[in-house]
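Summary for the steering committee. One of the milestones for this cycle was to obtain a three-dimensional model of the protein with manganese (II) ion bound, which we needed before selecting residues for the alanine scan. The sequence and ligand used are listed below.
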Amino acid sequence: MPKIANDLETFLTQHQSRIEEELFDFLRIPSVSAQPAHNADTRAAAEWVKRSLEQAGLAATIHETPGHPVVVGEWRGAGSRAPTVLVYGHYDVQPAEPLDLWTSPPFEPQVRDGRIYARGSVDDKGQLFLHIKALEAHLQTRSILPCNVVVIAEGEEEVGSENLEAFVERERKLLAANAVVISDSSMFAEGMPSILSSLRGLSYFQIDVQGPSGDLHSGMYGGAVVNPATALARIIASMHDENGHVAIEGFYDDVSPFPDKVIAGMRELPHTDAQFAREIGVTSLGGEKGFTTLEKLWTRPTCEVNGMLSGYTGDGAKTVLPAKAMAKVSCRLVPNQDPAKIARLFEAHVKKFTPDGVTVKVSYVHGGRPWRADLSGPIFDAARRALHAAFGRDPVIVGEGGSIPVVGDFQRILDAPVLLVGFGLPGENAHAPDEWMSVENFRVGTKAMAALWDEYAGKGAS
Ligand code: BES
Ligand code: MN
Ligand code: MN
């Protein structure tokens, strides 16, 4: 039975309250990457991470990009013959709106019922920070780590990581690693440590439909003019067939089926549709016919409306024929779909279904490639042992429907396997009001990631 080394365990237990105070400081910085009003806060968070890395015992630098900066921490004391691991996380957070739905303010962290409530607690400040503290445990107790470690923290993940691919290309020497470790995901259930075997990719669009040059009286003009809201509704309705398949021509051409073993593994996981539906407050589930819910979420591409806007939406009635209509639509992608190719197919589809009488513009907002792990090699073996040591049981292998754009880039540019091991929990409200991270998972996750370094170097306790 793998065990966490005593010195690390003792350090993390003794310093628990200081560590949690520090996390709260980090969570108080409103580093909302999407909102220019928070640019100074986002930079302050980068500087906070730099200081935190230095306090842990790493050398840290801030790198400018056309957007928010990248922070890099390095500890290379294990020498050039020892392996190097790259740890990635993001210090930016999603907007906190709507503020009135938060029980306590989003940037004033509060513990209730064993949960740390704050924007970014689980996505991803808490999970980035637990890695920094795991490294600190090694460096403060032993003055040494069993391998070289580079930490990279970005501030643009929640806005599509648009500058990160170029940064990784440019700094491939600095970032060169034998493996990449990321905690920016969730466990399948409480007490069930989880390793991710896949992420979906993304292509995100805005559709603008323009009709008459201004809003019109719906009685004087309605019936003789193409209504942009109706046109947009028909465009959107054309995107799926009656079985829930995406009806965009060529959409599935590059989809490569998941290995049978992975699908079989998904069927073993404890899941019931009834409970899942209850948790999210719907009367029944939907989607593509012929797939289980977990397959739909983890192995199938989608096309979803994220938002729509047109015409009069205020109190009462206003008889108006709107001049324009807008929708945000995104496709989640699976291996080996390419976000740029999907963008071409998507635009062609929209054009084909746009009636005469209105004009349409499709803008590509951002995207990221899908990713699939092969889950073999020393970093995965080390993770299994470290998670067993911390949680007392073997991890389960899960898929994921969300996206982390840089993961595919790391694998491709650095040619290194990526271990995704997350400590969130179902219902954590990532991106929503009342986001939380379990205090217990934060503590146990930190210990697990401290144990990871010993296990990776073959020096784990048992
Ligand atoms: N941490 C999430 C991705 C994620 C979500 C992983 C759930 C595992 C479980 C990440 O911060 C995120 O929100 N990604 C965005 C990417 C987009 C903005 C390009 C997403 O998936 O919507
Ligand atoms: Mn995240
Ligand atoms: Mn996120």
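Key point for the committee: Residues 121-142 form the longest helix (22 residues).
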